[in-house]
Specification:
The chain has 427 residues and is an alpha/beta fold. Among the domains are: 133 residues, 3-Layer(aba) Sandwich (Rossmann fold), CATH 3.40.50; 162 residues, Rossmann fold (3-Layer(aba) Sandwich). The chain starts with a helix and ends with a helix.
């Protein structure tokens, strides 16, 4: 089986065909700068001791300190973390953030831990990697199955180790300890601004646009709400247990309310506290991907669309809100079908962008309103979406390759500004 990092490098290889980059820059971007594996002892509530494996990778810090989330998931591995940090490097460059890419995680099913065990594990992770991170070295953030409270524990533990309040080492924190307004909705808002920027280029009106969203977590559910409020017809959504499909469209506020109250997905319409079922079909996550819709949003985990199911994908427009939901082997198949795939390194970059805003606020001690955050986010997402679209159209490239080219040109310029073989040979 091809590793995730090898898969990611295939996208890099394709982009390199369309950009003039020094040999030095290419070599630097092929491998992570530093990878750390740690063992984290956890004293369980029953007194027993268990050891968990943790990772942190700083892929590239050419443009600034590395930045990236920490995920708690049973499938976390060093290969996955390296791949995610690779993507973060390009995502930060696409959005012109003064960061490189980082990522981390613990191989654990957090649902099997009590809240006190989860806190001890989170603090133990920071104890193990404290020398590897820092506000000017590597900044943490929430990811799969981590949240604002976990970030608060991690920031607090780092502050204890440093013997000073250090909010800028972690983003995605609660507002009360230095978090930013708008951070909890940032990924979805960024994706929404990207979709809104691109829809006019395809002459699509929201009311005539049918949307399916795989993944009804924080980002997917918030994006579903934003699209619903803007007049899009959201016909299908799913979580890890499966999904619901209603060709006439779902009432997303009711679906969200029911999910929050019962932790189950039902196609309901609510008036006050009274909810009634509406006509719908129960579907699997795999079936959702193959629905005949105008926009498909994979917002769950990696490798959901592969060479095996890509021929059955019907949506002409795909927006990657998850990290790496489409395998590299599926790219040419989707391209041949005429699908436009707008990549994760652009579409879901709202999260890291508002994390950057939080880091700036922490370092300045001056905090912005939600309106200011969303205004700044919209300006940056629209600007970079337009830039990627322009590269795609002017050079006849897929949106994914265009995004990588956009990032590579920025990364290459920074690397070359520090001296390359060509510079030294010319002297």
């Amino acid at each position: 089986m091809t590793s995730l990092l090898s898969d990611a490098n295939l996208r890099l290889d394709e982009a390199l065909k369309h950009v003039q980059l020094s040999e030095d820059a290419i070599l630097r971007l092929r491998s992570p700068k530093a990878s750390l594996s740690v063992s984290i002892p956890l004293r369980r509530d029953d007194g027993s001791l268990q050891i968990f494996q943790g990772y942190r990778v700083r892929y590239d810090d050419t443009r600034g300190p590395t930045k990236g989330g920490v995920r708690f998931h049973p499938n976390v591995s060093i290969d996955e973390v390296q791949s995610l940090s690779f993507w973060m490097t390009f995502k930060c460059a696409v959005l012109d953030l003064p960061y490189g890419g980082g990522k981390g995680g613990i191989t654990v099913n957090p649902k099997e831990l009590s809240r006190m065990e989860l806190e001890r594990l989170s603090r133990g992770y920071v104890d193990a990697i404290a020398d590897f991170i820092g506000p000017d070295r590597d900044i943490l953030a929430p990811d799969v199955y981590t949240n604002a409270m976990i970030m608060s524990w991690m920031m607090d533990q780092y502050s204890i180790i440093q013997r000073k309040f250090s909010p800028a080492v972690v983003t995605g924190k609660p507002i009360a300890v230095g978090g930013s307004q708008g951070r909890d909705t940032a990924t979805a808002m960024g994706a929404f601004f990207t979709i809104q920027t691109l829809m006019p280029k395809f002459d699509r009106e929201p009311s005539q646009t049918r949307v399916a969203i795989q993944g009804f977590g924080n980002a997917g559910a918030t994006l579903a709400q934003l699209l619903f409020d803007a007049g899009y017809v959201v016909v299908a959504v799913s979580d890890s247990k499966g999904g619901i499909y209603a060709p006439q469209g779902l009432d997303i506020p009711s679906v969200r309310s029911h999910k929050n109250a019962t932790r189950t997905m039902k196609a309901v319409y609510c008036e006050g506290s009274v909810c009634n079922l509406v006509d719908h079909k129960t579907i699997t996550n795999a079936e959702l991907l193959e629905l005949d819709v105008d926009i498909l949003v994979p917002a769950a985990l990696e490798n959901q669309i592969t060479a095996e199911n890509a021929p059955r994908i019907k949506a002409p427009l795909i927006f990657e809100v998850a990290n790496g939901p489409i395998a590299a082997a599926a790219d040419p198949i989707l391209k041949d079908k005429g699908c436009y795939v707008f990549p994760d390194i652009l579409v879901n970059a709202g999260g890291v962008t508002v994390s950057y805003f939080e880091w700036v606020q922490n370092r300045n001690g001056l905090y912005w309103s939600a309106e200011e955050v969303n205004q700044q986010l919209q300006q940056r997402m629209v600007r970079e979406t337009e830039a990627v679209w322009k590269i795609s159209q002017s050079r006849d490239l897929s949106p994914r390759t265009a995004a990588y080219v956009h990032a590579l040109e920025r990364l290459g310029e920074t690397i070359e500004a520090k001296g390359t073989r060509d510079y030294y040979q010319a002297g």
